[in-house]
Amino acid sequence: MEQIKEAAYLSAPKSAVYRRIMNIFFKEYEKMKFYLYKEDIYNEIKKISEFDDYSMEDLKTDLDALVEWNNLSAIQDTKKVYTISEYKNREFRYSMSERAVILERAAVMIDNLHLETGNLSTNYILRIQDSLEQIKRISEHEENVDKINELWKILQEDFKKLNQNYQDYLRDFYIQKPEFYGEIMEFISYKQKFVSILKNFVRELQTNSRRLEKTIENIKEKMENKILFLIIKAEIENQEMNLNKIFLTPEELKENVEENIKGKWESLKNWFFSSEERKSECRQVLDITGEIIRKILQDAFFLTQKQSWGINKKEEYKKILKMFSECEDIKEAHKLSAHVFGIQNIRHYVTEISKGTESIEESLYDEKCGEYKLESHNRVYKPKLEKSGFENRDDIKEKFRLEYKEKLEENKKMIKKYLSRGKLDISKIEGEVSSDFRKFILNMISAANLSENKISTTEYGQKYKIVQLEERFVLKCEDGNLEMPKFIFEFLGE
Fold first, then answer.
1. Residue 32: pLDDT band by 50, 70, 90 thresholds?
2. Closest by alpha carbon to 460, among 491, 487, 432, 438?
3. How far apart are the C-alpha atoms of 192 and 196, rounded to whole Å?
């Protein structure tokens, strides 16, 4: 990707000065005044107190820098030239480039971001639904491509605003700001209003989104099989005079337009319809809003508690004890306890202690008390280890040694049985061999292949050499058959 040269003025050492100049150009641009002389710029910038020492020469230097970065275009004004000396002085009119207009507009939006407010209205959903129904009606009676394309653009604009509005509105709630809680009492007083707005939004979103889901479901087939192609056709025709078409073949233009429009339709569907892989955007908005409501209520609780920290705790405890003493029975005491202590500071531990019953009719207080030992999470702490002596395992070792010796003798006898003139051809072995003997043979092959001369020693100390042939055969074993290359084992002495 190419470097955006026009953005240099935003981070240059004199960015404050450059931004003032570009802001003057942008304000005049919005008034449809596209060309400015340096005298006009100078008069405007001198109105700012921090530019009291700013000279015309300074302005000319800064304008040249902005021209160099392609933020401004300098056009020599011949109308104001009356003499050769005036011509040589090169009077210019300055105008903003297209990229500079876009950059400055974005910079102004960023500067005023704190003033932007979102809207939790679901009217855009109703507007989208109305546009889809109109598109369906028009397509059923006539193929008014221009009208369908106009409704499609309105629909997309409403869909864009729907996304932006809820994101901007929920952002301030979702991202906790310290200054938001600066005035505790003000927050608590407006808590109910905020919660009410969010709950109404959730209710309306649930209702309206279901209606729109049905509308999309009814028009989906016709939209994807006919209407989208009419919209694509209209969009291609609208771009006949587009300068970008110079750099695209008709096939490339059609592909880009088709991908763009079909992608927008898929985004609209995914906003309201969930799949196995992902939740719909609508469902995520509902989840986030529910989380924000819980967060506001919890924050209000904490703030109320913070306000009451200065109360005399002794008198408060006396009052609570009196309330417990006046309880008629244990059930009333449990209810009072739940109210007084709440659930904010309760810690739940997951243990492997089995419950006495899984019946929902049984109360928690009818369960027998269990004991669970909590271990320290301190990094310095080390649990005490119980000391134990060494266990004599000589008997077990002797048992394993005898079993190994017995198997080794059996494998040795098996080799001697099929040994002919100091050579063993394993393809000549008749019947099934044990799994242990198969492993023994494969270990011999692996050990010999590790050496360059293909020579190794058996586990009982006899040297051998292997020769691999191109032929293959099947070694029958008690636990299955093994297809392998044919090997000849040449034993080099006892």
1. confident
2. 491
3. 6
Contact 97, 71 (CB under 8 A): yes
Paired with 425 in beta bridges are: 488
How far is Cα 255 from Cα 232, in angstroms, rounded to an integer? 10
237 or 190, higher pLDDT = 237
Please tell me the distance from the alpha carbon of residue 343 to that of residue 191, in angstroms, as a whole number: 21
Question: Dihedral angle at the C-alpha atoms of 75, 20, 57, 63, nearest 10 degrees?
Answer: -30
* The two three-digit tokens of residue 323, written as one number: 């309330």
DSSP state of 4: -
Q: Check: CB of residue 210 under 8 Å from CB of residue 127.
A: no
> Residue 189 is encoded by which pair of tokens?
């007083």
Query: Is 336's pLDDT higher than 80?
Result: yes
Our count of domains for the chain comes to 3
Domain assignment of residue 53, given as a range: 5-112
Contact present, 188 and 303 (Cβ < 8 Å): yes
Q: Which amino acid is at 229?
A: F
| 131 and 103 inside one domain | no
Tell which residue, 23, 47, 178, 12, has the closest CA to residue 109. 23
- Do 54 and 17 lie in a common domain? yes
User: Is the CA virtual torsion 220, 223, 224, 225 positive or negative?
Assistant: positive
In the predicted model, is pLDDT for residue 5 greater than 50? Answer: yes
Contact 181, 187 (CB under 8 A): yes
For 126, 271, 486, 490, 491, the CA distances from 467, given in Å and listed in that order, are 83, 69, 9, 8, 11
Is 363 contained in some domain? Answer: no
**Model confidence pLDDT, tens digit, residues 435-450:** 888 888 888 888 888 8
User: If residue 488 lies in a helix (H) or strand (E), which one and from where to where?
Assistant: strand 480-491
Please give the structure tokens belonging to residue 242: 């587009």
CA-to-CA separations, 439 to 403, 436, 470, 475, 492, in angstroms, rounded: 16, 5, 22, 12, 22
Indicate the residue among 295, 315, 339 that finishes a domain: 295
What pLDDT does residue 182 have?
A: 47
CB hemisphere CA count around 218 (13 angstroms): 13
Look at residue 387 and tell me whether its pLDDT is greater than 80.
no
Determine the Cα–Cα distance for residues 278 and 92; give it in Å rounded to an integer. Answer: 58
- 3-class SS at 323? helix
Supply the Cα-derived Rg of the chain in whole angstroms: 43
Name the token pair of 88.
């040589």
Q: Is the dihedral of CA 295, 298, 304, 307 positive or negative?
A: negative
Beta carbons of 85 and 136 less than 8 angstroms apart: no
